[in-house]
Amino acid sequence: MSIDLSQFFDVFFEESFEGLDIMEAELLNLQPGYEDSETINTIFRAAHSIKGGSGTFGFTSVANFTHVLETLLDQIRDGRRQLTAEHVNLLLQSVDCLRALLTALQAEEEPDLSNANELKVKFEEILGGKENVSSDTADSTSQGQESQTYQIDFKPLPHLFKTGNEPLYMLSELSELGDLETHAFCDAIPEIDDFNPEDCYLSWRLYLTTSYPESAIKEVFEWVEDDAEISITLCGGLFEDDVSVFTTPELESEKKETSSNETQNIDVPKINPATKAKPEASKKSAESTSIRVGIDKVDSLINMVGELVITQAMLTQLGEQEPTENTLAAMQEGLAQLAHNTRDLQENVMRIRMLPISFVFSRFPRLVRDTSQKLNKQVELKLLGEQTELDKTVMEKISDPMVHLVRNSLDHGLETPEDRIKAGKDPVGTVTLNAFHQGGNIVIEIMDDGRGLNTEKIKSKAIANGLIQATDELTIEEINELIFRPGFSTADEVSDISGRGVGMDVVRRNIQALNGSVEVTSAKGVGSTFTIRLPLTLAILDGQLVKVAKHTYIIPLISIVESLQIDIKKVSKVGNGLEVLRLRDEYIPILRLYQLFNHGGAIEELDKTLLVVVESDNHKVGLLVDDLLAQQQVVIKSLEANYQKVNGISGATILGDGRVSLIVDISGLIKLSGLKRPGTQELLVEQELDEVVS
After folding, report:
1. 465-488 pLDDT per residue, tens
2. Known active-site residue 412
3. What is the CATH number of the domain that holds 50?
């Protein structure tokens, strides 16, 4: 039976994407004219690994594109070509192109090669020109471009197929280096009774005419150095030193007997991944479905499981004994130990999903570089707290909102170098990303030392858009908060960076969907700071248990502003029978949970119930409940995955007594109640509330 290479695809794609991240990070560190040789070597090794792996698995579109990229890197590495800013930009574009090709292949889709072909032409134009080649090495370069013929003897060991390697892919890659003539030796193939389909019986003698150096040929066989006998001979050589051997060769005697051996000319096939048989399984998502875990976390988890096993054995033994006061006390002590071990185990399991936020921060050096070039601004990016850990799911969902905020700082916050000089500032602006833990949350700050928010312009735009009245008196903080209103923008022109009015409100909504919050502080001429607060994990929630009729619901603690007994004298009715409570200087709409969820038997008299004031999307509402129960951490279970989506409910959990309790979704609850105006973040009752106030 043949080896199914698809079983190795996941590892290949994971390592390839990591290699691309390394290439991008190192390219951003390159300074044309001052490039570090180790940095170039790191980039070259990453590209070479991707090329070798893609060639092995038959992804020739990636292998062929990476080959020309690798050639330029090799010339820069050897000092034959001076690195320029054009090269860096082209290599960064190539990283994006490779990422797109690999993403398509991972999803088992046909990759779009148009961008790859365009970039390949640009590379070939650079490689074909001589203007950038270092004058010190011009002679050696011209010599390297002369075609030479090599004799390559390639004899795979029988177990080669079992290592996941395919000789035909290597021959295909060799054919990309020049004119290749192949001869296959078939005399080692046994009779059919002794034939093992998992063994390799063929060997090859190859004649390659190429302008590439011998090192390029060796690189093709790097993956099978220990699994084959390989020798490379420069044809027409006068000395025995012209033979390069990877392993101890046993082919010398065969070289003298070539005329007596049976040989067969074969054509090297071009491997096309589109013609490859695809697995029957459904198409895989290009999103990462794996996570790398430090061995210390695994060891800690194993220790916790060991403690649980010991405690369970002790409780089992006590359960088999006659009940006495001593055994009862020991049983209680064992149960307390079991609870302690369970908490420790839960914490250790959650730590496995925790990753340093550097995985998010790593994408911003490239973003800042490209955006600052488009805006003709000079920007320095500072990253702080990169090792601060948070849940992988939170990390994946916070990335896009952070991109919006960083783009906003670059476009609106930082001034041009000329304006900064006029203001007495350094012409190079600074954007700082900082992350740290605060209580049970992670705090992420996006800071810039730019012009700050223009409160006059924000207020005038808000008045023009009808968001506020000209007579409204707002504090600086309230004016700054207007930038999070839907459709709000102070940009005079629409660009691909900002100015469409669909950014900041989406940022806030996405962050609130993670049970987080975002706020902004700003000082004119000094800069702005956007602060994001998020829970460390989405799998566990701090909740307040409340009683509604005979049912128990959970309200996220982060949404609760306060809980109080209702003063019936401060309750008024507005349109559609909606009740509102005047609480200090605000009017809070009252939502009766038993009506929204169709429960009978609940307490209906307002003065005999409790009101839990919650906040969502900058709107406060009061939830009428029968009673407040305990506060506790709960493990969130998805309703959509296990049942179906339920309006007003974000998930469920299992309580200590085994009952299922539903977790209230505040934003969804407001929509369910009909309070929210369709297509906006405004409440239908706001105008009526204004009338009550007046």
Report:
1. 777 888 888 888 888 888 887 767
2. no
3. 1.20.120.160
